[in-house]
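Cyclin N-terminal domain-containing protein
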Amino acid sequence: IVGDEGGGGEGTLKLKGTSYGFLLREGSREGSRERSSREGHSSGDGGDAYDPYFLDDPALQSGKERMVLNLPGLVASVLPYVRPRALKAQLNEQWALKHQWVSRGLTLSKIRAAKASLLEWVLEANCEVSTAALAHVYFERLVLRRVVNKANRKLVAAVSLSLAAKWNEPESLGTLLAAVERHYSIPRATVFRSEFSAYAELAFDLRLEPGDIFPHFSRLLTQAERTPHDYLGEANFAEFQAEFLEPPADD
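Structure:
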């Protein structure tokens, strides 16, 4: 990969000497599973068994320091105040212990910052939050494929957003790439040159299961301070509710 830990910079994402012929066989999902088994991934990716809570668990928000109070009939856990810098280091440490296979230098805070940028650009361009949700899934799957490191994380995030826009709302691609160039200083030509390698790692398949997207979509709406009903509107929310939420109780 150009622009890896030793090279620095935001070079083109390119996997030299890697054949993707097996992915062109009938059923690209089968090809993806074959490659995963050949490489012996222990990342939890499991081929096409993507878990939206595996890489970035939203429950991981508090540090490791806590005080346990054993009171009569009650056991309480108290979290002391921790300075933001120290909390960031503690969260990165906890995360690294669970994901020791990740490239050295790639931390939870860097992954979350890259994903936060994707939402920021989508909102800035007045695009669909679902596009950011798709990009989050693509980005996490590329991390699980071990093609993301500290040096190229911004480029991979930009490529993930480009692929998501092409799949979900192609008319917004130019606006989103302009935001990438403005904030990350990555030319759109570099993004386009890197797309094929990322697309290959995604098994040439941008389709996702609704259950893979929904957790990201829900979290992103919360971060954008919107509710599903407010964002989707009455008609679309009814369909959304039938697909993902508990049916309303009968009066």
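Strands lie at 67-71, 74-78.
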